[in-house]
């Protein structure tokens, strides 16, 4: 994948997150955290709704070394929230039960 600005973030991912592929910037990269109750793990990420033809989805794995799976098809409940919109960029947060013991989450952008 092309990386015009040399920041090791592929241009397609920067485009999907509403970042500028010509400038090194990490402010809109996904962030994982635990919510205040301690009962959920939160993944906050950005999606540029104007990034035509780009699909953004979240993948997960319960044990490292296993194949990544699409979170939208998971056998457990996750909750997606829209935290805000700035221009065409949406800030989303997914809440997952901390009891689910997910080892790894990643946000994928595809054309």
Give a written overview of the molecule.
There is one protein chain. Strand 3 (55-61) and strand 4 (69-70) form a beta hairpin. The chain has one helix spanning 11-16; strands spanning 31-34, 40-48, 55-61, 69-70, 79-86, 89-97, 104-110. It has 111 residues and is mainly beta. It has 1 helix and 7 strands. The chain is globular and about 40 Å long. Helix content is 5%, strand content 41%.
In short:
The protein is mainly β and 111 residues long.
Strand order of the largest sheet: 1-2-6-5
Write down the secondary-structure element order.
HEEEEEEE
Helix content: under 10%
Q: Beta fraction of the residues?
A: 35-45%
Report the uncertain regions: none
Instruction: Indicate the structural class.
Output: mainly beta
Shape: globular
Main sheet characteristics = 4 strands, antiparallel
Which SSEs are present, and which pair or pack?
Layout: H1 11-16, E1 31-34, E2 40-48, E3 55-61, E4 69-70, E5 79-86, E6 89-97, E7 104-110
Antiparallel strand pairs: 1-2, 2-6, 3-4, 3-7, 5-6
